[in-house]
Amino acid sequence: MNIEKTHLRVLLLMTIVVVSCSTSPASPTATPGLAPPTSTPALPIREATPSPSPEPPAIEIPTEGKVSADGPWLVYYDFYTERLIAIDQNGQAWQSFEIPKPDNFAFFPAPSGGHLAYVSGSAFLPQPDHELVILQIPVGKIVRRISLFGPTWQEQIVEQGLETEYHMFENDVLRGLQGEGAVAWSSDGTKVAFTAAIEGPSSDLYLLDLSSGEIERLTSGPLQAYELNWSPDDAWIVHLSVDTFGTGAGWNVDTLWAAASDGSSVMRVVDNVRMTFVEAWQSETDFLATEWGADFGPQGLFRFSIEKRTREILFEGPLPALAFDGDVSTAAIFKDPMVAAYFDYVPGVYVIDLATGEQIIVEQTEEVSNSIVWVDSVEMYAATFEERTILFDRSGTLHVEISRGGLLTPSPDGSFLAIYGDRWRGEPGLAIFTTSGEELAQPASEWVFMVTWSPDSRVAFYETDASLYVLSAEDMTTTMLKKDVPDWPEAYFWIPAP
After folding, report:
1. DSSP code at position 233
2. Alpha helices, DSSP H only, in 42-144?
3. What is the sign, positive or negative, of the torsion defined by CA atoms of 492, 494, 495, 497?
4. Integer Cα distance of 175 and 162 in angstroms
5. 483, β-bridge pairs
6. Computed over its alpha carbons, how large is the radius of gyration of the chain?
7. Which among 35, 53, 385, 406 is least surrounded, fewest beta carbons within 10 Å?
8. For the CA atoms of 28, 30, 34, 37, what is the dihedral angle to 10 degrees?
9. 420 neighbors 444 (Cβ within 8 angstroms)
């Protein structure tokens, strides 16, 4: 699994930090209006095996060399040297490239083709020089640079009376060109949608065809196009029209739109929406989304239909943890005990049948869940708490409980679960488990801020103490790869092979 985007959106969503004392989980019980889980015998709890602190990994830092041309590559931006770093998936080689300076460290890897997009720029208002940059990895070649502001942009601001003392409109335009909502690749990696103010004072939706090199303007209007998402068949680009981005309490959003990628039409889907984030697609025209509010952060699960131009609510309330199964037929959610009385629900972990809306309570608990993920290879959800982790299936049946919590990153093939603490969640260190709950190794004893597995599941990369390490899944040995690396997980991402 690629590292979660997360970027500025993650910072926005982390507005509420909840701290709760752990209690023993209550037995699964039926809640009025809720279906109980299938009755199962009491689970044997897999205790984390006490072991001495791991020995520090050998300092075997490979020198910079040429990475494989085959890929895939783990990539991050080194803001100390202002260079892009590409690493082979086996962790045996790394290579750096000098690139135009990123605007805000939001990078967009193409799903195929070995391309990487990002927004560059260092000048401030009122004369920004931001560009969309397309790179070819692993050679670091610049394939395309596109100015995101037209030559008469500032003049249009003045002529249309949009200029203010504090550059409010200009700042909204600039904000609309930044962050993870401003760029999105088609599923085949041949086209990239992006926002730009090339022909008008506001930021509009544009489309670059890498094969032909042509750029097409898909939308126009006085508001800012943002939060771009492609439909699975690449026929539609869903986006929001934003009036103002505000100063941190949320965006003032007008409408959710869908633009045909062939330029034939722009469809008004639903008016009067809030900050809306597409979470998963159920068909070529139906998708699931959450909203964000200053009161509870991510909240509400909705189904939107482009074809019907409708919005249906599936769940109302905060969603501090959410995951979908492989075919998006169910969702696993966590109902926070801190706000249970306000929303009149029973706190705990639930599975929602997305076809019927039925909610199955997996476990009632006053503990706070740090995360929920879907482990596709074993067809189970994994939910982590501060001191334990549980695995359960679509029906809400518990299968495994592990006496270690924090954050969890499963290997792509489902053979391993990396459970770790990042200072804010869980206990210090990193432990590797099987999906049956057997502990295999404890490679790190300090706080770990990032774990990502290679696509072939043969190695895991993790960051601790500002250093990047490589863990071999074969023998669980660890070596240091690089020092002075970023300590936030959103900085790292995988670029698939061309």
Report:
1. T
2. none
3. positive
4. 16
5. 467
6. 23
7. 53
8. 40
9. yes
pLDDT tens by residue, 13-24: 333 333 333 333
Average pLDDT of the chain to the nearest whole number: 87
Output the CA–CA distances (angstroms, integers) from residue 388 to 244, 338, 371, 404, in the order listed.
42, 19, 12, 4
- Which residues in 64-147 belong to E strands, given as ranges? 73-78, 83-88, 94-98, 102-109, 115-120, 131-136, 141-147
- Over pLDDT 90: what percentage of the chain? 74
Residues 361-368 have a mean pLDDT of: 95
Does residue 460 carry a pLDDT above 70?
yes
What amino acid is encoded at 470 in this protein?
V
Residues 388 and 401 sit within 8 Å (Cβ to Cβ): yes
Residues in Cβ contact with 378 at an 8 Å cutoff, skipping those fewer than 6 apart: 391, 414, 435
pTM of the model: 0.86
d(CA 462, CA 478): 10
Give tens-digit pLDDT for 87-104: 999 999 999 999 999 988
CA distance to 201, 245, 298, per residue, from 160 (Å): 9, 20, 36
Sheet of 275-281, strand order: 275-281, 286-293, 297-305, 310-318
Can the peptide bond before residue 138 be classed as cis, meaning omega within 30 degrees of 0?
yes
Alpha carbons 223 and 167: distance in angstroms, whole number: 15
Q: What are phi and psi of 418, to 5 degrees?
A: -95, 115
DSSP string, 305-357: ETTTTEEEEEEEEE-SSEEE-TTSSEEEEEE-GGGHHHHT---EEEEEETTT-
416-457 residue pLDDT tens: 999 999 989 999 999 999 999 999 999 999 999 999 999 999
Is the CB of residue 84 less than 8 Å from the CB of residue 96? yes
Residue of 339, 407, 409 whose CA lies nearest to 374: 409
pLDDT in tens, 115-173: 999 999 876 765 678 999 999 999 899 999 999 999 999 889 888 988 777 688 989 99
> Angle at CA 413, nearest 5°, toward 430 and 8?
60
- Whether a cis peptide bond, with omega within 30° of 0, leads into 126 is yes
Q: What is the C-alpha to C-alpha distance for residues 130 and 215, in angstroms, rounded to an integer?
A: 17
Residues 360 and 3: beta-carbon distance below 8 Å = no
Q: What Cα–Cα distance (Å) separates residue 476 from each residue in 304, 416, 430, 431?
A: 45, 11, 12, 11
The contacts found for 378-381 with CB under 8 angstroms, 24 or more apart, are 378/414, 378/435, 379/325, 379/326, 380/435, 381/323, 381/325, 381/332, 381/351
As a whole-number percent, the residues of the chain with pLDDT over 70 amount to: 86
